[in-house]
Structure formats: structure tokens, C-alpha cells
Amino acid sequence: MSTVAIFLMIAGVFFFTTATIGLLRFPDCYTRMHAAGKGDTLGALLLLLGLALYNLNDGFSLAALLVSLKILSIAVFIFVANPTASHAIAKAAIDAGVRPWTRKGGKP
Amino acid sequence: MEMLFLTIALVLGFLTLLTLYRAIAGPTIVDRIIGTGVIGTKTTVILLLIGFLYRRVDMFVDIAIAYGLLSFIATLAASKFFLHRKTIVPGARRGNVPEEGA
Q: What is the ipTM, given to two decimal places?
């Protein structure tokens, strides 16, 4: 169980790193939103899942189960809220007239 | 195991600093809102790791829940505000945007 938790946490850190590199290197705000919206959600999900598993590792008790359920509720909330926030930002950018990036600089 | 938690927390702090560059120097307001949201997600995880390091997860998990909720509401409120303000790209009207700077 602890090995699975360590594996999940390292995978989460990998996806966080990928999201940050994408956020720094992509050319415009829509592509940056693509990196931040997906990589960040998956990284947080994996890390919180690993933490919840590790919390149940040493000795089963009702308090530890409650804390693990709270951590899982944070994971579910992030899984719902992060795409919603990305959608709201993208709608604001489209309505304000930010054009998507193209390779030639022509019409998207 | 605590060494792993400390290492992950330090790596996430370093990534937060890298994200802070995008949140400060982003060319448009949209980039700044995205950077702030990413920092909020990372901080939620870092708070839980701090709780595991101090062996007080039962307290820090509530703080992490509150921080996650507030971060989501802040992102949503900022995007709604700038949706109505039409000032994301400087000097641009609706549907008429200059080629560079968008």
C-alpha cells in the first residue's frame, strides 16, 4: 500500500512539472490554459490519492478514515472545479476578443 | 517517508515560483488569472504535505479545503469581472483585436 502511495505521489509531481513547463513555454493564453487545466488537475488528483492512501497505511481508525475521506473530497472538488474555472476563463477571453495563436499569424 | 514529503513539498514550492513568473509577467490578464489558479491548486497540495510533516493532518485538511474553495471562487470572480470589463487586451474592442499582443 505504501509503495502504491509513493508511486502515485511521484506520478503527481511529474504531471505538475509538465503542467508548469507547458505554462511557461506555450505561445498564447489558450494553449497555456490547455497545459494548466489538464496537467494540474491530474497532478493534484494523483497526489491527493497517494496522500489519502498513505494516511490509511498505519493503523486503521475512524479518525484516519475521516481525514482520508476529506482528502478525497478535496480531490473530487478539484476534479469538478478546475475545468469549470478553465471554461470560465476561456469564455471571458473569447468574449473579450483574444485571438488564438496560429503558426503563420493568419486567420485561426 | 517524511523525507519524501519534504522533497515533494520543496519541488512544488519551486514549481510555484516558476508559475509566479507567468502570474506576474504574463502578457495578458488571462495569463495572470491562469497562473493564479495554478498557484492555488499547488498550494492546496502543499498545505496537506505540511500537515503530514507536522503530524497534524486532521487540522490542515480543513485549511486545505477552505483554501481550495476560496481559490476557485477567486478565479471564477476574476474571469466574470473581466468578461464584463472588455479590457483583457489593451486597446481592443469586441471582435477587433490587433495582430500582436493577443
A: 0.88
